[in-house]
Write a structure and sequence with these properties.
Length: about 280
């Protein structure tokens, strides 16, 4: 662990990720805790932080563009019949405390705050597990509880009128390389075929690394995948794909995504074996 309240995740004694709990970021980026850098066991970085193409992309974390009109994603807000618009509507995820801190993971409490009010309270559980001598798994669970007296709903640019832009939820901004990564599921290949589909797992393969994402609960597996490879490499699990996600007062919405982080380029069979092992642990 570091001493500045930013845990370092370790697998078999090797550092594989740093979790920044209190980032100093401008309000326009929707400040929030994130994991960066995340690396393979051989030390290859597989995340990016505030890249030039999307400076509000912050490694691995939870980002939502529309919580009852408040932007917890960063950057411009998509407004129906108007398009991407600069609005003063950004929220922030604020670290409250760690309930548990170990070298291989933590349990964290966060507050989602906008316009001076707390909207959601989150419990985030993150764990790192060794799978083989060249692969490990990042187990990431988040639960969002509505702490207001009224209904809150989560939306996306897609639910606000921009087809295909259903980003929001767990999101991994991957390493950008000279050549775009390959993306595939058990039965589809390529960004066009994979984006917006539901699949037990989805793999993103770069020059010498592979990420395999899997929804680890029934509800998470119902959420379609948001995928970008040509414009930038990024994968998310969509909370609001074609309709808004309502959360009643006092109710909680939970999602769990397990990601295999592997050295080398995995094929379908290798990805299947590793992701099954990761989810079953």
């Amino acid at each position: 662990m570091t001493t500045n309240d930013s845990p370092v995740l370790r697998v078999a004694g090797r550092p594989v990720g740093r979790y920044v709990t209190r980032p100093e970021l401008p309000a326009r980026l929707s400040p929030r805790p994130y994991l960066h850098p995340v690396t393979t066991l051989a030390g290859t970085a597989v995340t990016e932080l505030s890249p030039a193409d999307h400076i509000h992309h912050l490694g691995v974390g939870v980002a939502v563009p529309d919580v009852e009109g408040h932007n917890f994603w960063g950057g411009r807000t998509y407004v129906r019949d108007q398009g991407p618009t600069e609005l003063d509507n950004h929220g922030a995820q604020r670290h409250s405390s760690f309930q548990l801190r170990d070298p291989d993971g933590f349990v964290e409490e966060l507050r989602w705050v906008a316009s001076g009010a707390e909207l959601l309270r989150e419990r985030r559980t993150v764990a790192a597990t060794e799978l083989t001598d060249s692969a490990w798994a990042l187990d990431f669970t988040f639960s969002l509880t509505n702490v207001t007296n009224g209904l809150l709903s989560i939306g996306s640019p897609a639910t606000n009128g921009r087809p295909g832009a259903a980003y929001g939820g767990f999101f991994w901004r991957a390493r950008k390389e000279r050549q775009a990564p390959d993306v595939f599921t058990p039965d589809r290949e390529g960004e066009t075929e994979v984006h917006g589909t539901r699949a037990d797992w989805l793999a993103l393969a770069g020059a010498n690394w592979t990420l395999v994402f899997a929804g680890a609960t029934e509800q998470t597996r119902r959420d379609p995948w948001f995928v970008r490879t040509a414009e930038y490499p990024g994968v998310g699990s969509s909370l609001a794909y074609d309709e808004r996600l309502p959360i009643e007062p006092g109710e909680t919405s939970v999602r769990r995504v397990v990601t295999v982080v592997a050295d080398g380029r995995l094929g379908h069979d290798e990805a299947t074996v590793l992701v099954r092992k990761a989810v079953s642990q």
